[in-house]
Amino acid sequence: MSEKPPVLSIEGLHVGIDGTSILHGIDLKIKPGEIHAIMGRNGSGKTTAASTIMGHPDYEIESGSIELNGADLLELEAWERARKGVFLSFQYPQSVPGLQVGHFLRKSVAAIRGDEAAKGAPFRDALKSAMKEVSIPRSFLSRYVNDGFSGGEKKRFEILQLMLLKPKLAILDETDSGLDIDGIRVVSRGINAAIRGSDSGALIITHYSRILEHVKPDYVHVLIKGKIVKSGGPELALELEEKGYEWLESDATEDD
Amino acid sequence: MAMEEAREAVGDYKEGWHDPEHSTIRFDSGLSEEVVRKISKIKNEPEWMTEVRVKAYHHFVSRPMPGFGDREALEGIDFDKVCYYLRSSDATEKDWEDVPEDIRNTFDRLGIPEAEQKWLSGVTAQYESEAVYHSIREDLESQGVIFLDMDSGLREHPELVKKYFCSVVPYQDNKFSALNTAVWSGGSFIYIPKGVSVEMPVQAYFRINAKNMGQFERTLIIADEGSSIHYVEGCTAPTYSTDSLHSAVVELIALEGAHIRYSTIQNWSANVYNLVTKRGIAHKNSTIEWIDGNIGSKLTMKYPAVILKGEGSHAEVISVAYAGKGQHQDAGAKIHHLASNTTSKILSKSISKDGGRGSYRGMVTVSPKAENCKLNVVCDALILDDGSQTDTYPTMEVANPSARCEHEASVSKVSDDQVFYLMSRGHSEEEALAMIVNGFFEPFTRELPMEYAVELNKLMALEMEGSIG
């Protein structure tokens, strides 16, 4: 019996920055069509995990492996990983003054999905329907990338990119932070549209369980001090909402 | 020789190739009164022009180098090594087929005939000291538009040239305006009659091919009342290990209600000194715009100027400078508000990379009698790496309290996070940098005809190549 390899497979991952270790042995497997959530407080290593998978050059891999659909990612630069199908929705998307949104989207689609996907009616149609899904008006296209965007606009723009780039693995770093209920509903709609019913996998990184009410994860992992201390089903998110992180933190310190 | 060739072979500069030099007349290098008189004689000029040249020559000799800018680099110019006149073709042709083959190929390679067919009203192509090709659309000619190379302008319209030559930039203005006046050759002469709008741009292209060449074109544009024109110039040169000198003078006259836009994409090779004086006089309710792109050269010192002489006139200077390895771009703008209700806008953007140095040097003045003037100055600098440098020398002298002045300046560095963001969208580090740089230049490129904007973006992408350690 042959089974497809996991979309994402992380084994024994230790990561540091500027000589300080942050992740102390992460193991994670995301199968096609699965949505996983990593929950944890600030400073637990969530953004480090997201940036490391995307290939941020500042993070040093001390040991371990990251594979996308069975292929090693560690030797690849961020742009190569993007072209292989890794996508990161940033917690703080960067602005690029003078670079028009429409132009940028077309160039990014061409880079990741090929020139054909960025041409003519198919591109325009995909763009139109994705913009509708995340409630982005047409006038957006002539603005500059993230320049002067509100917090909510930035997040919706990240999800618009997710929908157009059709990654194999979508990592969503604190996509819900700074969003109101309507904002969360809109970006969740986009995430569901991009991932559900596809072979892709998603990793949602968050503090709170709110977004998980709209994008129901298959698995929830709790990250404390650079380690996954507990994994479970969606009910774990609710438990955390009720009890906080403290009851798990004591376990983590004992381990250290 | 081997080293020279090696040096010529390196670098990303795309237009650095050269043709075998061919000349019908080539002066020995060096400058004297005799050389100045000889140039005038070859051109069969009227006496008054010879006299202006000689006076300007003596002024040049006695005038010290400018006391600002890159003095060290300026001292490196060896005026005795420069060739002051080189004619490579006997005539200025109206048909590309008649231009000598080598030279025609050069301009083909630079895409000039193609651009002419597609979207220009007229073209002049200068090679070394003289225009080798010149053409204007017939419908414009029949409307009375004069578009000639400067030498033909002097021959065919001596009264107009005499009236306006040196009227905006006197030869005593600075050392290099004196030099240009003494040895000028080529350039454009344009007159647009009252009420005529030239819809498509006219273009001049300046190519230096020979080593140690000095190119001293002189351009004079007179826009009569209510007329308008967009003039575009481009320039390139081969990469040599020895220096060349480009020192032009451009004079613009916008009469009442006229509109002149003058766009430049300067892409000289990194061995060219580019020391240019550009100035316009704006009469009542007229507009003068300088769109000035400085990408190449070893040292550029250039501050396009507008004298707002007539009430309600408007000036705009939008410039970008790219200072790469071994380059110093000392560029900016000068605007003088002499009349009431005049407005001006300066937008300067510079990028420094690989140890390059970009300087903004600007001056805006408002005279005591000029009421209700508006001034807006914005200068932004972007530094791409640690060894590169940017400086700003803004001056505002406002002698009338009713003036409204705005000044903004910013210096930014490309951040790693910005690059990483773009890389996470499938763009290599070089592509990401080119996107950031092109975005930074966008307020400039959107003012260019589309064809130039595309060309400039490609040029900047090329400059970003191989730049990543």
What's the CATH architecture of chain A? 3-Layer(aba) Sandwich
Report the portion of residues of chain A in β strands: 25-35%
In whole angstroms, the N-to-C terminal distance of chain A is 40 Å
CATH class group of chain A:
Alpha Beta
Strand composition percent of chain B:
25-35%
Helix vs. strand class of chain A? alpha/beta
Task: Find the count of extended strands of chain A (DSSP E, 2+ residues).
Answer: 12
- What gross morphology of chain B would you assign? globular
Largest β-sheet summary of chain B: 12 strands, mixed
Q: Estimate the global geometry of chain A from the Cα principal axes.
A: globular
Radius of gyration of chain A: 18 Å
Number of helices of chain A: 9
Uncertain residue segments of chain B: 1-10
Extended strand count of chain B: 24
Can you offer a commentary on this structure?
The complex is a heterodimer of chains A (256) and B (469). With 256 residues, chain A is of the alpha/beta class. Helix content of chain A is 38%, strand content 28%. Chain A is globular. Chain B is built from 13 helices and 24 strands. In chain B, strand 3 and strand 4 form a beta hairpin. In chain B, the strands form three sheets. In chain B, strands 5, 6, 8, 9, 11, 12, 14, 16, 17, 19, 21 and 23 form a twelve-stranded mixed sheet that branches. Chain B has 469 residues and is α/β, with parallel strands linked by helices.
Describe the structure in brief.
The complex is a heterodimer of chains A (256) and B (469). Chain A has 256 residues and is of the alpha/beta class. Chain A has nine helices and twelve strands.
